[in-house]
Amino acid sequence: MLAKKALSSMLAVLLLTFTSQVYAQTQPESANERSKTNEGYAIHYNTLNTTFLMTEVAKKYGITRSKNRAMLNVSVRKGGGLGKFLQTQAVKAKVTVQATNLANQLETINMWEVLDGDAIYYIGTFAKTDKEIFKFTITVDPENKGSVHEIKFRQQFFVD
Fold first, then answer.
1. Which residues contact 54 (CB under 8 A, 6 or more apart)?
2. What span, in angstroms and rounded, lies between the C-alpha atoms of 15 and 13?
3. What is the DSSP letter of 130?
């Protein structure tokens, strides 16, 4: 039981760490462009190569570690504002994601919910190639209230 709690906490720390670090390394955009606040909700999102995940974490959540796979992570928090992350509360949401590559090939990324203590994550994985650029459209309905928020961003991926 203690090992399971430690593994869950490790995933939460890992995902939060990548929110601030991976994007800063792969995109010239500022951190504020990686989260969006609407109607009191902060929507945080990030991508990372699945090889960055520890083997135990990937296995626990059914994620295939591969240099040709990436992961998208979305979380929704209510209250506190962007600079006050610790004063917010995780909320459930309906999250859908579509990605288009430069050849205009559209892919819907299947997202699944991960409950980890007080944290709630929506995770999806997808195939990628070296230097491939995706245009993402994330649609989020916090607390399934019918108030949909759309986030669009571009991300280039590299095979490590």
1. 10, 14
2. 6
3. T
Here the tokens at position 58 are 């990937």
pTM: 0.77
- The string of pLDDT tens digits covering residues 29-58 is 444 446 666 578 889 999 999 999 999 999
Closest-CA residue to 70 (of 2, 153, 16, 132): 132
Query: Which residues lie across from 42 on neighbouring strands?
Result: 37, 77
Is the separation of the CB atoms in 74 and 122 below 8 Å?
A: yes
CATH number at residue 24: 2.60.40.3340
Specify which residues 90 forms β-bridges with: 77
Q: Which domain holds residue 122?
A: 2-156
Instruction: Report which DSSP code applies to 54.
Output: -
* Rounded-to-integer distance, Cα 144 and Cα 132, Å: 33
The token pair that represents 114 in the structure block? 């991960």
Q: How far apart are the C-alpha atoms of 58 and 69, rounded to whole Å?
A: 12
Number of structural domains found in the chain: 1
